[in-house]
């Protein structure tokens, strides 16, 4: 089974345009850069091996996953899941938003909780990193973003725990 996962991950990094773009960005980080995944839900579980492989190939490493509700998250093998409060005390060079469904809302939340000096990166819509209101050409439509905004603004709890 591990050989199959290794092969699937290798194929994903070569064929998925979003992962390829991320893989090309990672070498810009200093050697030994520390990445914290923001979100520890379904997407992170599904993509963890791909993200770890991409980070390692660039000399970076994923040191933790951060979620507003870490106690409600399924374990991520050996990766610690920390709260947004713990993130402030964690060494982090990049806070990588790990969500394909709620990326816009989680990106806004990540901008708020990112430790000083840490960059916030998105996997699917890099336009969100600059806080742009509209998605990039390859990202979700404006109506999708409006729907996500409505969902997130109606919720009274923090966003990272929701998938």
Structural class determined from secondary elements: alpha/beta
| General form | globular
Name given to the CATH homologous superfamily = NAD(P)-binding Rossmann-like Domain
Q: Write down how many β-strands occur, each being a DSSP E stretch of 2 or more residues.
A: 5
Treating each run of at least 4 consecutive H or I residues as one helix, how many helices?
Answer: 6
**CATH topology heading:** Rossmann fold
Compute the separation of the termini in Å: 27 Å
Which series of helices and strands comes N to C? HHEHEEHEHEH
Number of domains: 1
Enumerate the strands of the largest sheet in spatial order, edge to edge or round the barrel.
3-2-1-4-5
Specify the CATH class.
Answer: Alpha Beta
Q: Can you tell me the CATH architecture?
A: 3-Layer(aba) Sandwich
CA radius of gyration is 15 Å
| Average pLDDT, all residues | 80
Extract low-pLDDT stretches. 132-163
Largest sheet descriptor:
5 strands, parallel
Helix content: 40-55%
> Percent of residues in beta strands?
5-15%
Account of the 3D structure:
This protein is 41% helix and 13% strand. With 163 residues, it is α/β, with parallel strands linked by helices. The protein has one domain: NAD(P)-binding Rossmann-like Domain (Rossmann fold, 3-Layer(aba) Sandwich), CATH 3.40.50.720. A five-stranded parallel β-sheet has the order 3-2-1-4-5. The C terminus is likely disordered.
């Amino acid at each position: 089974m591990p050989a199959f996962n290794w092969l699937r991950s290798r194929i994903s990094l070569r064929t998925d345009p979003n992962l390829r773009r991320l893989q090309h960005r990672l070498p810009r980080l200093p050697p030994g850069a520390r990445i914290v995944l923001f979100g520890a839900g379904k997407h992170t579980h599904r993509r963890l091996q791909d993200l770890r492989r991409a980070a390692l190939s660039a000399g970076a490493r994923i040191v933790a996953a951060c979620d507003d509700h870490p106690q409600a998250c399924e374990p991520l093998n050996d990766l610690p899941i920390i709260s947004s409060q713990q993130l402030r005390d964690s060494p982090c060079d990049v806070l990588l938003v790990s969500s394909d469904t709620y990326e816009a809302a989680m990106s806004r939340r990540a901008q708020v909780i990112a430790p000083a000096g840490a960059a916030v990166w998105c996997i699917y819509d890099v336009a969100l990193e600059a806080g742009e209101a509209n998605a990039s050409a390859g990202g979700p439509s404006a109506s999708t973003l409006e729907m996500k905004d409505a969902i997130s603004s109606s919720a009274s709890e923090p966003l990272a725990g929701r998938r």
